[in-house]
Design brief:
The protein contains nine helices and 13 strands. The chain is α/β, with parallel strands linked by helices and 305 residues long. Helix 1 packs antiparallel against helix 2 and helix 3 runs parallel beside helix 4. The chain is globular, with a radius of gyration of 20 Å.
Amino acid sequence: MDKIKSDYRELLRKGLKEEYDSSVRGYDVLGSIAIIGEQGRKGRIIADAVMKVNKNVMTVVSKAGAVKGRYRKRVFEFVAGERNFIADYKENGCTFRFDIRKTFFSPRLSFERKRITELSKDNENVIVMFAGVGPFAIEIAKRNRGSEIVAVELNRDSYRYMLENIRINKIANVRAVLGDAKDVVESMADWADRIVMPLPMSADSFLGSAIIAAGNGCVIHYYSFGRSEDPFSESGKMARELAKSMGFTARVVGRRIVRPYSKDTSEIVLDIRIGKRQNKNKGKRKDTGAKRIKERKRMAKSSGK
């Protein structure tokens, strides 16, 4: 891996010459598809370098915009190689197939998927909200064959690929649900032992719904954004206050920075343990996240990601 990186940098220096600088970013590889961030002549030089050091890469595409919309889609521009947008990607012993133009998938969450899979216990009831093409759900299910996993996805294309990936990986304990995450999880009150919420941009508006579905002792893996100088405090406080307003307790039992998102913002995850109801407000939800969602969208837009 180190040799690939050094060979790649050397090829870029030779190809870009005076244009080479630290602003040239790395790239993601999804099976035979590499994704870069540059277009035009510069993009073609980078694509050539990527394909020379990665013999399995047959296609190079470039990001032509940010992830947008409720279906979390991104526009890609074809740069070099075979014109293909269907990825066959292997991760943590599983295989995933999907169209990168129609679905959302981040290989940079590979460690998080492995971490949560290892935290999961057999015979748990697990909900994966915003399940995409199924990576969290399938990896948890493959390790814990006695668990029951409900994976909820709104994007019909992602849902279709999730069904295909369940078949490819020979998984029998994932139930894929096409629908709005709020509606689905609120119909599953007190059911879950573990809930995964990998939608940092607007997870605040769904946290109340997740708390409704949480059984006593349930752990919610809550993804969010925080300012780099103090990334955890605001989200932790909001979660505790929201849970309290609904008659629950919420205790942060784990936390980590997933990745830097921009100069001033980090993507984070809080592992939050939900306690039993303290009063009779069962099912009551108080949405306290609208202001934070608006601010996160502003930060994401300013970062250009």
